[in-house]
Amino acid sequence: MACPTKRRGSDNWYYRKRIPKDVQAILAKLPKDQRPPNWFKDQISISLGTGDRTAAKAKCPEVAAEVERTMAALRDGPKSLTDKQISALSGELYKAFAAGLEDSPVLTTEQWLRVAELNEQARQGEYGAVAGLGIHRSQEERRRASLEERFGRMADIFLTRRGVVTDHESRWKLIEWASRDLSEAARKLSRNADGDFSPDDYAKRFQPFEPTPSKATGRSLTALAVAWHKAALDRGVTKRDADRIKRRFEVLIEFLGHDDASRVSKQDIIRWKDQRLADKRSVKLINDTDIASFSNVFNWGVEREWLASNPTDGTRIKSKRKKAEVREKFFLPDEAAAILQHAAAIVGSKREDPKTTAAKRWVPWLCAYSGARVAEMIQLRKQDVRKDPVHGWIIRLTPEAGSIKNNKFCDVPVHEHLIATGFIDFVNNAKAGHLFCDTGKGGAIEGPAEGVYKRVYEMVRELVPREMRQPNHAWRYTFKSYGLEVGIEALTLDAISNHAPKSQGEMYTKVTLKTRSNAMRKFPRYALGKSTGAVAVEHAAE
């Protein structure tokens, strides 16, 4: 149901949600006094305490998160609490009063002392209606009944809001300890009301609450992401893609403030989504990268019974309106020329790694004359550049060098403009191995390559308008657009840029090295050193 909603006869807005069938079955077994407040037979209806829709909407995520935590706890079943946990929970109640009301105690000194006195009466079995009815046979029965009347409802509401479902014994011990600690809180507030704000030594006894681990022992988000990562690599997911998804979970853990997979709720993912929108991240990025990554891993966990459900279900942003496009996705001739001229003039600093300088010099040129993905070209090795006896110089982008999106090698003829400007000389003079980055720990290439990718991006970003949202990726559009303009077939352009076939028929059509080489001879040089409104048509020499 939408949040917030209106209820007939009330000025306030409400949070409403239908209770899932499995949770309904759990609630049916609970005593009425232990059911979460405002949870009815098959739905939840919680007043947001305001008639202002904006204020109500702002409160919805907090209430929804509380509801999701409670549902998760109910599904997980009652847990016995340790004395340390009970003390921590009682301490939270103490601090809610003692610290929460410290600046403005609300009541007078005498009134707070009266609160403490009533608490003590309950502890002695002398509070409320039960004390005078004489229906309890023993002093202990009267004491329990008095404590229940004074503190029972408060304890149940508190446990519900904390998302804690516990057994009868632990609940009862919390009531007993809270009765003592809340008496101390009342006495402290009586001193505050009299102007005494000396340090609160009593609060030092309480430690932070640490939840009991879920039944799925050891099922942390970290463990889930690591297990998924290993399985993903085993089934052929590229290491770069698997690493990126795993890193997203590291960021999610930091955002959530915990590492418990069983505690992640739909509302947590919605809060993540809302924060990303507030940070001006695009809907496409959030849907296709963030939520898709989380969903992939959580589905894997559900299949293996690590999780009861996937918290990302139903969290994708529904947007019928595409983001406005205010320019072409390819580089205009002047823009391409500016980037290539800048790259050709690059001189590295003493502090910059020579391979990073080489990447800034050559990667934009290589992508301009191939439509290759920047990250894949950065992984190029010396041995991947060869001279074919028939078709001349060839670059092979291969999964052996690093992660390739479709996990397939691609042969790219070297354009004569690259040869004329010294690329082959650069390769011949380079040491064996990767040309543009060093390998990392254990021979990994993805991390170092990503660092170089950022340096290339930063260089190009300074040279093109901000409206160009993906300057590194723009070379793919640029190469294919200008290749089509001079009559190169789309299928051939796709093959050179290692673009996936669009149909089953295209999958069976293989573009030979001869066809690629002939096409590259047709591709014009980019016109440098002058302003031009169209790509130059100086064709490479046959």
From TrEMBL:
One of its GO terms (molecular function) is DNA binding. Keywords: DNA recombination, DNA-binding. It comes from Bradyrhizobium diazoefficiens. InterPro entries: DNA_brk_join_enz, DUF6538, Integrase-like_cat_sf, Integrase_catalytic, Integrase_recombinase_N. SUPFAM superfamilies: DNA breaking-rejoining enzymes. This is Tyr recombinase domain-containing protein. The keyword NADP does not apply. Pfam families: DUF6538 (PF20172). Coiled coil: none annotated. Residues 326-521 form the Tyr recombinase domain. One of its GO terms (biological process) is DNA recombination.
